[in-house]
Amino acid sequence: MNLTEGAIAKITSGGATAAELKPTLQVTELKQVHTKQPQQSDRFRLVLSDGSHLQQAMLGTQINHLVKDGNLRPCSVVQLIQYTCTTVQGRINFTGSWHFYASWSAYQQPSPMYSNTGQVAKNDAPPRLMPISALNPYQGRWTIKARVTAKGELRHYNNPRGNGKVFSFDLLDSDGGEIKVTCFNAVADQFYHQIEAGKVYLISRGNLKPAQKNFNHLRNDLEVFLESTSIVQPCFEDDSVIPRQQFNFRSISEVEGMDNNNVVDIIGMVSSITPAASIMRKNGTETQKRTLQLKDMSGRSVEFTLWGSFCNAEGQRLQNMCDSGGFPVLAVKSGRVSDFNGKAVGTISTSQLFIDTDFPEARRLKEWFEKEGRNVPSLSISREMSSVGRADVPKTISQLKDERLGTSETPDWVTVNATVIFIKADNFCYTACPLMSGDRPCNKKVKNNGDGKWRCEKCDQSMDECDYRYILQFQIQDHTSITWVTAFQESGEDLNFSKYEKQDDESFSKIVRQVLFSKSVFKLKVKEETFSDEQRVKSTVVRAEKANYSSQSKFLLDMMEKFKSGNSAPVASNTESTYPNSGANSIGIESSGRPCGPLGSNQGGNKGYIARKFGSLPCEVGQHGNQYSTETNIALGFLHLLFLVTAVVLLAIPQQIALVS
Amino acid sequence: MDTSKPAIFVNGGLLPMHVQKRVRIVIQVLGSDRGAVIGKSTDDHQLTVKGTPPSVPLTNFVEVIGIADSEKSIQAEIWTNFGDTFDTYSYNQLCQLANGEYQLLFL
Q1: How many A-B residue pairs are in contact by the CB < 8 A criterion?
Q2: Contacts of residue A603 in chain B, CB cutoff 8 Å?
Q3: Helix (H, G, I), strand (E, B), or coil: what is residue A33?
Q4: Contact by Cβ (8 Å): A157, A165
Q5: Which of A25, A166, A315, A608 has its CA 20 to 30 A from that of A389?
């Protein structure tokens, strides 16, 4: 569709009339003219362009409604059906009907043709409405008409430059443009009570500045800063044209590819939700959090965390809905992507949650869920938050040292299959603070005050009685290497250390003997710590489980398969480190019968032998630096397998029946 | 530890390869029949174990070490109770490996 070029010249020169020429023109300006007599209806003055000339015009009052409805606006392309041209100052009067071709396309900057006419007067009062997306810092006067989608709190802040208050809110206009508006100090006070979320306002005379991306997650490079001279007018009409909220939903599979700290809108079905839990933040304050799983049509699910107030308000509501068997649809505006445990999304202060609202996407999601989603398992892009999942990387002890685990910023969580070979008998417990801090006991070491009381530094209290908690230090060893670990009360109990009740040396040694040489799967938290100028990697036992020979055998069989088929590098290196050349220690312990073949005949005696050899020696088993060939490496692993299988025998109390035939 | 009489890990399918040799096998006890114990190997072959079972009652899985006197029977010398559960899959794999590539490791 093209503008009828030259039409204006024709009309103004008297060369054409309304009957002959019905030109297509574009409205470049539209202003309301204030009439002196209040009874008279509003008059609108416009400027029309035909692509080469501009012409002033007055709108016939019969079609004033077009402006009032918002249909006729700057940039509208119109076809004149009925018009008259009077040469009073060369204006054209339009009456009659209009056709519209388009009410908006992207707003064009006033064309350089403006200088041709010079008739356009600068106008103070009438608003020059523009879409938010057209705002630019060089725009003289601008007015936007938009709805408040989010209203922030009146925040007080304190920074080196002083203290003050700030208040901001987000606007959305009918074209989907969004922008954030901020006010400081007195201006904040001025507007805070005027602005209501969900209402439409006309805003003008604000300052446009580049947006601060770390506070502003809207898709606009600019932000508006209001001054005391800014105008904020509530708008009572046109309510339906401007949407209430605008989302840019991404599917969960897209979230998987996003960077950390990206802000995103997502929508999904809540498939599960956990109760609220207290979490200690890095700065020491406590906050509440809840996690839930969101599923969507991409077949993926993601873990979504509700922090702080979201946890309580929306979180509780969601929990109730889920508990009663429902699957609510949750839409999130401005959630932050984090790469904790795979990819997860969490709320931030500017997030907004919408539960079971009637968006088209929500409806689609509900339909998909009813039809298929309910039964289709989705792939989670977040790793499970249980401690099992977190430490499911099986490692050998030598890998702990080789790969320098624990030396990075965060502690590493690993799993090792190893045997307890030595338990340190002194300092196996400490006096602990029994007071509750949140929902967990403090457990910090308490000091004897000297007057029979125990003092806890953290809780800042004294008490008569304190808890005794295990702090066990022992060595664990697998076929590769040996290391010291520490276990506290809970993990100690995992290992069959019963609750410490009274001092009883005999039963203590009995327990120790029982635990010694038991094989377990240890989940360790490995972290490097500094002890008086010395960097040391400390491993703490988070959980200990009895070794499951069956699954371990399968694991090893798998590894052997992969090793045999000369599989890809990662596996090879895994096997490499699992069967290192120099780790020969464990062989001595595991199969004391080596290298003499199968552990056949003397099973009953085996265990006793080991115990006798290592039982009471508080020594660290040294490394034998032998060189072994690859074949023997396989042998090592193989014997490990063999050991596992025959260890079943050791577990089941063997009835040694030797028949002399 | 007495290693003068090594026994080869076998299952039902591998037993025929080692007739007249000393073998060891884990079987699931199905029943006893005229002084012999009928058992099922980890790869579902039915086998007979001759010899005197121990006075202690046998559990579900038993390991038997002895001379294989035919493709389907063993003259047992040593009986060991392995309990009521046993990972037959892993044991089978072990037998395969012990008789295959890694034979040398075991004898």
Answers
A1: 95
A2: 80
A3: strand
A4: yes
A5: A315
